[in-house]
Amino acid sequence: MVRIQFAIDLQYELSYPGADFVFNIHAAQTKSQSIVSEQLQISQPVASNIQTDPATRARYLRLNAAPGPLHISYQATVDIDQHIGNPDNIPETPVAQLPLSALAYIYPSRYCQSDRLANLAMREFGLLDKGYRRVEAIRNWVNQHVTFRGNTSNSATSALDTLTDRVGVCRDFAHLMIAICRALSIPARFTTGIDYGADPALGPTDFHAYVEVFLGDRWYLFDPSGTAIPMGFVRLGTGRDAADVSFATIFGGVTSLPPLIAVSAITEPGQAWELPRHRPEALSTDSAVDAG
């Protein structure tokens, strides 16, 4: 088990008449991820509403703020108990046997144009044995063919753009891996979290995008950018691609500062908490019956 503590600090300046916000910054509550404690602070005296998506267990903070400064602060301590599997014994799941909750993740989406990557997917991975190791090969291929570099993509960059440019940030790596998996009829979804364990040389701690792939009867974690430690991922949201899981969706005139994020792992003698590390095993936080 891993215990992670993190804090998110967001600052905005709102013009008249104010703005509506939908935030996805709360830790998701799943059978494998439990919230030990959390605290939310909102600088304006406004009513807020936190709702949980029953399918993904993502939690959304909704509020309407008045003109002027707005400061949102969220801190949480989370316990993560990941399932550990043998990569050589994890099969792909035939489409006919997929649970309904996984079907949405085999189709093309806005940033993951899998229908246009069928030739590449079959050429590079079509002859490999089906299962976890084939998905691992896709993850390694994306990691080796795309260079991580900040400020090289934007909100319009898709998997096809990344395939052409061969450069991007974590969301671009995730979109490309997802698109290739779906081109092979392997369900894959876009997941957001915190980049625990990232090299400080890559910049300040930030929101992180990674991939969950449905194999056997579970969703398994893959980090195609290779910049963080999957064992330390705190899940915030899951969706078809980045369009579904923005940390902040804003309706109104707003300027903002970059988010400030801090994250640490907690260890204590006599406790079961481990320090996150890179592991060769397959890691999962959801079975087919745990969450969508």
Task: Output the keywords.
292 residues, alpha+beta, C8orf32 fold, 6-stranded antiparallel β-sheet, 15 strands
Proportion in helices: 10-25%
In terms of structural class, how would the helical and strand content be classed?
Answer: alpha+beta
Identify the overall geometry: globular
Largest sheet, strands/sense/barrel: 7 strands, antiparallel
Instruction: Give Rg in angstroms.
Output: 19 Å
CATH topology of the largest domain: C8orf32 fold
- How far is the first residue's CA from the last residue's CA? 22 Å
Q: What's the domain count?
A: 2
What is the strand tally? 15
Number of helices: 5
Overall pLDDT, averaged?
95
Strand content: 35-45%
Task: Report the CATH C-level class of the largest domain.
Answer: Alpha Beta
Describe this structure in words.
With 292 residues, the chain is α+β, with helices and mostly antiparallel strands. It has two domains: 99 residues, Sandwich (Immunoglobulin-like); 158 residues, C8orf32 fold. It is built from five helices and 15 strands. The protein starts with a strand and ends in a 5-residue tail after the last strand.
Topology at a glance:
Blueprint: E1 2-23, E2 33-42, E3 48-52, E4 59-65, E5 68-80, E6 83-85, H1 100-103, H2 118-125, H3 132-145, E7 147-148, H4 159-165, E8 167-168, H5 170-183, E9 188-194, E10 207-215, E11 218-222, E12 237-239, E13 248-256, E14 260-266, E15 282-287
Parallel strand pairs: 7-8
Antiparallel strand pairs: 1-4, 1-5, 1-13, 1-14, 2-5, 3-4, 6-15, 9-10, 9-12, 10-11, 11-15
Task: Write a short abstract of this structure.
This protein has 292 residues and is of the alpha+beta class. The protein has helices at 100-103, 118-125, 132-145, 159-165, 170-183; strands at 2-23, 33-42, 48-52, 59-65, 68-80, 83-85, 147-148, 167-168, 188-194, 207-215, 218-222, 237-239, 248-256, 260-266, 282-287.
